[in-house]
Structures are given as structure tokens and as C-alpha cells.
Amino acid sequence: MFFERHKGGECAILVHVDFSREDDREDPNEFHELVVSAGADPVAFVTGSRHQPDPKYFIGGGKVQEVEQLVTQHNANIVLFNHALSPSQERNLESIFKCRVLDRTGLILDIFAQRARTHEGKLQVELAQLQHMSTRLVRGWTHLERQKGGIGLRGPGETQLETDRRLLRARIKSIQKRLEKVRKQRDQGRRARSRAELPSVSLVGYTNAGKSTMFNAVTDASVYAADQLFATLDPTLRRVELPHLGPIVLADTVGFIRHLPHKLVNAFQATLEEAREADLLLHIIDAADDERLDNIEQVEHVLKEIDALKVPTLLIYNKIDLLERTPAQLERDKNGKPARVWCSAQTGAGLDLLKDAIVELLAGTVVEASLTITPAQGRLRAKLFELGVVQREHVLDNGDTEVNIRIPQSDLSRLVKQEGIQLN
Predict the structure, then answer these.
(1) DSSP label at residue 255
(2) Residues 6+ apart with CB under 8 A from 355
(3) From the centroid of its chain, how far is CA 276?
(4) pLDDT at residue 135 is higher than 50
């Protein structure tokens, strides 16, 4: 039950206002990318500056006239604002422009509706749409706000607006129940992975930072990746074998954006829990983006909202192929732990460093040891090869085998306890 949304290629007028307060500012270039990602055709970009929004029209009277003239000149289908509008502001502007008016939240919701592929993703988008539209129902039913007298109209019947609100509440409640079931299923999956001692790693980052391309490069998967905002909406999980560590589960998640609407954060709780419950977060950053510091701050803000800041995080500076004289490298913090990896998912440069960093962070202390295996301990030898920890082996004159291993301390302690092995 998606709300009817506009088709691609619509003629659009874009409106952006610079405010004096830093918190209220939006990025005009990002706004243009959002509009293109939605499939609209921007024909004019109106900009201005104000100390605070106008309560009636959001923009001043002069800008209202300017936009109205552009709508008429280009025969525009829609006017898009790079800001959050109140329902009354949308209604007032539509009455003047004689075309649809959509704010930033509505635009992002439309993109999400186009990208959703799985049943869960569609439910999450529909929930966010319903919650957003519920405050704007009055726009379509102002002529039915009061029942009139007359034949067939008498009695205690409810207005059309009241009927729609009641139906919306029922639909929202139904979707929330179904998403709660999805959340429980995800919890069961995570518990199963935990019992199997499979570490989970989630990719997070600003939209279009290259998360899906990185996911494909590490897992040899074929997740849809494109140079556009919100190319990925539905989470994807893959099992990956890492040397000296064994299998892990890697999750690709939805991208974040500046001033991500709270409705979307709430609707995507089931998906975002993959990040909150992960053992390690890979924060993918577009190293070639001039706004990368602001983007890092915005991602951390969303992680704080979903209570995921406590999860260990490795910063991945992606797209170094777009920078001059920036080699692939692994940077460590003051304690010697991996903190930042500079790499390129597109060319593959530095991906070996990325995998090494993941192994080191997940395995804790990786130790090198030597042990002697007798012919009767063939099962132990097979287990060591299965874990992928054997560096080399040498058969001794008495028939025993000396094996050099590189293994996480936790796995080694478990083997010593289970097999009773003696280290050389």
C-alpha cells in the first residue's frame, strides 16, 4: 500500500535557503543529487537567505512570486524544498503555485519507496510514509471537514477525514506488528550466529560512500551498487572466510544522510539493529568528498540515535583512487590497534590491509606458536587446517609433525582445553 508517488522525469523547481544557524543549513549540491536520484528533471534552482523561516510560506513573499513565475514559465509539475515544511506551509504554497510541493523528508521517502525491494524494506518505507502523510491528510479533504445536512448526509456519521485517519492508524498498527515479527526473526538469527561463535561486522556510512562496492569487493557478491544516493536500501548479509580468523558475517546497511528524518530512523529500527548488535562497525568514508568531516559527524549522530556508538569502529577511507598521491595504508591509534584504513573498493588497493585490520580487531591478540602432533592426533591436525591457522609444517624423523600456527588467543585457549595439546 504505497502512496501514489510521482513518476521519473517530472519537471521540478528546486528551492534552497541558507539560514544563519549552522544546524539549520543543508547542502545544495546534495539536494540536487537527491532530486536526480528521485528521477526528477530540475529546470531551475532558486536560492536565498533568511534568519528564520516565514511561518506562512517558509520563504519570503518575493521568493514566492519568483518561484510562481518559474512554475508558469517551465510548466513545472512539482516544487521541491531542501528543508522540512509544515503541513500548512505545503498547503499554502500549493494554493499559489497550483502544483505539488514536496519537502526534503517527502523527497527522501520517495527515493526509499523506489529503492525498496524486499518485503521488509517495503514495510519499513510504507510505515515511514504513513507516519509522514498522517499529518498532511487535511490537504486532500478540506471540502469534507464538516458533514452537511441534507438527504443522505444526516446522522452521526464521521467525516471523510476522520475515516481516513482511523484507517491510517489501523494500517500503521498492522505494519508495526509485522515489523516486530521481523525484528524477532533477526534476533533469532543473531543468537544463532552468536552460538556458532560467528563474529558479525556491519558496514555503515554516509550515503554514496561506496559501502555496497566495498561489500562486493570483500565478499565477491553482486549487490546492486551505483553512483547515486541511497542505492542500497535492503540489508544484505554474507558469510566471509578471513585468513587466521575463520568465518564472519558481513552486513551491508542503508546509508545515512544529513538530518535523516526521525520517521525513517524509527521505521528502519529492525535493519539498523544489525549495526547496533555487531561486533565491529566498518565506517565507510568517501575520502574524495570535500564534506567528509561533516559526513562523519552526521553518521556518528545517527549511530548515537540507535545506541551503536559503543560498538568498536574501524574508519575506512574509501575511493583513494580519486585522490592524488594517496597510497593504501593502515593507520594505528596510540595503543597500536588499527584505527584507519585507506583503500579503494573500486581498484582493490588496500583491501588486504582492511582484512588484516578486521582480523586483528576481532581476534584480539593473535599469537604464533609451534606444537608437535603425533600420528594419532590426525583429527587435531585436520581441525587446525580447517581453521586456516597453519603457517607451515615439518615431519620429524620419529613420524611426528611439527606445526607452526598463527591463531587468535581465544581459539588457542579453547584448543588447549579441549584437545589437551602441549605447546613447544
Answers:
(1) P
(2) 218, 242, 243
(3) 12
(4) yes
Q: How far apart are CA 82 and CA 80, in angstroms?
A: 7
Work out the burial of residue 103: count CB atoms within 10 Å of its CB; fewer than 13 is exposed, 13-18 middle, 19 or more buried: buried
d(CA 362, CA 364): 6
Closest by Cα among 392, 338, 390 to 363: 338
Residue in the block written with cell 588484516:
356
Residue 230's pLDDT band (boundaries 50, 70, 90)? Answer: low
Please report how the helices 211-219 and 351-363 are oriented relative to each other, as an axis angle in degrees rounded to 10.
80
Q: What is the pLDDT of residue 31?
A: 87
Residue-wise burial string across 182-217, b where 16 or more C-beta atoms lie within 10 A, e elsewhere:
beeebeeebeebeeeeebbbbbbbbbbbbbbbbbbb
| pTM score of the predicted model | 0.69
CA atoms within 13 A on the CB side of 382: 5
Reported as a single tens digit per residue, the pLDDT across 286-319 is 999 888 998 898 889 888 888 888 889 999 999 9
Q: What number of residues does the chain have?
A: 424
Residue 394 contacts by C-beta under 8 Å, 6 or more apart in sequence? Answer: 401, 402
Q: Give yes or no for a contact between 357 and 314, defined as CB atoms under 8 angstroms apart.
A: yes
The C-alpha cell at 296 is: 562523519
Query: Residue 158: enclosing H or E segment and its boundaries?
Result: none
